[in-house]
Design goal:
The chain has 2 domains: 155 residues, Rossmann fold; 127 residues, 3-Layer(aba) Sandwich (Rossmann fold), CATH 3.40.50.1400. 44% of the residues lie in helices and 13% in strands. It has 12 helices and 8 strands. It has a 4-stranded parallel sheet with strand order 2-1-3-4, with helices on both faces. α4 crosses α5 and α9 packs parallel to α11. The longest helix is centred in the middle third of the chain and has 17 residues. It is globular, with a radius of gyration of 19 Å.
Length: 319
């Protein structure tokens, strides 16, 4: 076998109120973001008593991977909160792991969704003497397990609102970053493949959680603007750009977007993320087994560059 372990790599998120500020300081380290902006974002977490669901989602995913038959041990490390990535690498080294396959909780290709995770892994390995070799699984947005899972999530939402307009959403990124990555084209194609399983017609793709200043172009249309302008009487919002529930799903969609819909008298249902859907989990196991048999094709060093450095007023991508 090429790999003797799997490493789940995620963004990380706070698990209690006391974690929120230190977590956000980790996210914003090295960026010139006003402290007032950090406190503003912290309020989103306090709305949920300081607990992001993303760590629990990672724990559940690891449990499901084992329950569905993954033969390899699974380690877990985060970019911004405990368990930290370097600690996971040290744990693997101490356990005698020589080569691991990393799976990031991001299915699409972009700087923050793929390249930055590769950089994070390299930094963590550099901090751990005799660290195992770690290869990252390439973006898997087009895998059958992911596409079929999202189709099932939408199908279940349509059972609640059969006549609703289906709108797919993903995290917005700067246009300059999008132009140097396959992010936008992958999202459009993934939405089309899911939509094709459910109903005819081109899918509607919008973006959310924009965090840059008005002077900096980001991918549009924004979901809030779309809700304000649509003539639809009912909406199903599908967070296809997110693998699991976290703050930008439960706050930006379940709270803010749903609130805008209520104000306009629009029925609103948010479809589930891939999460721990059995089809998705089994699909990940198939990808691991394929990588063990055939290896993985590493991304080129020039793939998905940063593009632009986040502006000082940027709201951090949250966990």
């Amino acid at each position: 076998m090429s790999y003797d372990a799997v490493l789940l790599v995620s963004f990380g998120g706070p698990e209690k109120r006391e974690d929120v500020i230190p977590f956000l300081e980790n996210v914003l380290r090295g960026r010139n973001v006003p402290y007032e902006r950090l406190l503003e974002v912290a309020e989103h977490y306090y709305h949920f008593d300081g607990r992001s669901p993303i760590n629990d989602q990672c724990r559940d995913l690891i449990s499901m991977l084992h329950a569905e038959g993954l033969e390899l041990p699974v380690y877990w490390g985060n970019r911004n909160w405990h368990p930290m990535l370097a600690d996971a690498v040290k744990e693997m080294r101490d356990a005698g792991i020589e080569r691991a396959l990393a799976i990031a909780t991001s299915a699409f290709g972009s700087y923050s969704g793929c390249r930055q995770y590769i950089e994070d892994i390299d930094i963590a390995r550099a901090a751990v003497p005799n660290a195992p070799v770690i290869d990252k699984l390439p973006p898997f947005w087009d895998s059958a397990g992911f596409i079929d899972t999202m189709a099932d999530r939408v199908r279940k939402a349509l059972a609640k609102l059969p006549e609703a307009q289906v709108v797919y959403t993903a995290h917005s990124i700067p246009v300059s970053m999008s132009q140097s990555s396959p992010y936008e084209s992958q999202l459009k194609e993934a939405a089309r493949r899911v939509n094709d399983q459910l109903r005819p017609g081109e899918p509607v793709l919008v973006y959310q959680s924009r965090s840059g200043p008005p002077s900096q172009p980001w991918l549009e249309p924004d979901i809030g603007d779309y809700i304000k302008g649509t003539e639809a009487k009912s909406l199903i919002v599908v967070p296809i750009g997110f693998l699991s529930d976290h703050m930008e799903v439960i706050y930006d969609l379940d709270s803010v977007a749903a609130g805008l819909a209520r104000q306009r008298g629009i029925e609103f249902v948010r479809a589930g993320t891939a999460g721990t859907h059995r089809t998705f989990v089994r699909g990940l196991i198939d990808l691991v087994r394929k990588a063990n048999a055939q290896g993985v094709v590493a991304c080129a060093p020039s793939c998905c560059p940063r593009g632009v450095r986040p502006a000082a007023s940027q709201r951090p991508t949250t966990g």
